[in-house]
Amino acid sequence: MPLPLSPRSKLACTGAIALSGLFACLAADGVRTGNPVTRWRQHDIQRPKPPVVEPSEAGIVTKPPKDAVVLFDGTNLDAWKSPAGKPWKVVDGTMETVPGSGMIETKGKYGDIQLHIEWAAPNPPKGKGQDRGNSGIFLMGQFEIQVLDSYKAETYADGQAGAIYGQYPPLFNASRPPGEWQAFDIAFRRPRFDSSGTLLEPARITVFHNGVLVQNNEEPFGPTSWLKWLPYEDQGERGPITLQDHNHPVRYRNIWLRELPKRPAPPTVVDRPKTVKLATDLLDRYAGQYRLNPNAKPNDPQATIAREGDHLTISFPFRPRPLALEPISETQFDMPYTDGRFTFQTDNSGQVTGVHFRIGDGERQLMKSKP
């Protein structure tokens, strides 16, 4: 179940329409396009339930990598704080909710992460529907991955274990029986905003539940809220990991994350050598068939270099679509989309004998077999 509604966040549903006998709701804005989009009503009991899949019986304890931020190793709650001032408890190496204590959240704040977390619903099970082993994991304090006893238990699809709560049901129900340890492995990419707070890119979430993919790079259409969708708001680039107390003694263990770096942006101006214009007859001399290695037999596959206007192309047997080679000197050719350089070689009489090419940090010699 989600956190309480933010009083600052409001998103009205523009209407409801009947769709194939089911009700769907038109949200005010599409996350990416700004156009109205059709969505399931939140918690629609007619929404198809995910198929059940039995996870592997193998152990699920995954040791954190050396660069991981360990949030709970079974000894203490030093990485956590309780906004309500009522801490959870550590029991036999596990972190356990204390009903009525409220949420706990990490002291640290995080953006793009890989998160591993293990949990167990209480056994024997009590209650039904959402009142059965309920908790939740909030990424950046905003986007909830549902924790629930969904083993042979009925509830609405977008509230099952592994759901992006109220938005995307899990693709599969990979739940273990209550009392058994379960694992979520989550890849989270935070939303992106421009300097004015306008959304550029929604969050993205991938979840494996007990090794089974249940959320496949989904884009939440806003932070988790109950009964009504909310729009994105720029709340900064980092936020805490929050665990929910829903008055059920759910246990957690082995919680760690890895902060994911930004990919280096390419230079705005690519420093490429200038192309030169070569005579057609010189380009034609370079054209022909080239053996892929010096020991190739006559009938072995070969590369083909051909003239195309003012430049050359090369085609490989494993990649028949020609690749452009642009001249930067009389003997050297550059690849426009790849860090690649081709250097043609001649003998003392000026006959083309081969070409040396470099792709990234790899090099290879091609020998000319015939024009």
Architecture overview:
- Helices cover 2% and strands 36% of the residues.
- It has 371 residues and is mostly beta strands.
- It has two domains: 1-53 and 60-263, Exo-inulinase, domain 1 (Jelly Rolls), CATH 2.60.120.560; 280-370, Lipocalin.
- Strands 4, 6, 7, 9, 12, 15, 16 and 18 form an eight-stranded antiparallel beta sheet that branches. It has an eight-stranded antiparallel barrel with strand order 19-20-21-22-23-24-25-26. It has a five-stranded antiparallel beta sheet with strand order 5-8-17-10-11, with no helix packed on it.
- A hairpin with a 2-residue loop joins strand 6 and strand 7 (94-96).
Q: What's the gyration radius in Å?
A: 29 Å
Which CATH architecture of the largest domain? Sandwich
Within CATH, the superfamily of the largest domain carries the name Exo-inulinase, domain 1
Q: Which parts are unreliable, with pLDDT below 50 for 5 consecutive residues or more?
A: 2-29
Q: How many domain units?
A: 2
Kindly estimate the percentage of residues that lie in beta strands according to DSSP: 35-45%
Shape: elongated
Q: Structural class of the secondary structure composition?
A: mainly beta
Figure out the total of helices. 1
The CATH class label of the largest domain is Mainly Beta
> How many strands appear in the DSSP assignment?
26
Write down the secondary-structure element order. EEEEEEEEEEEEEEEEEEHEEEEEEEE
**Estimated helix fraction:** under 10%
- End-to-end distance: 72 Å
Kindly report the CATH topology of the largest domain.
Jelly Rolls
Overall mean pLDDT: 87
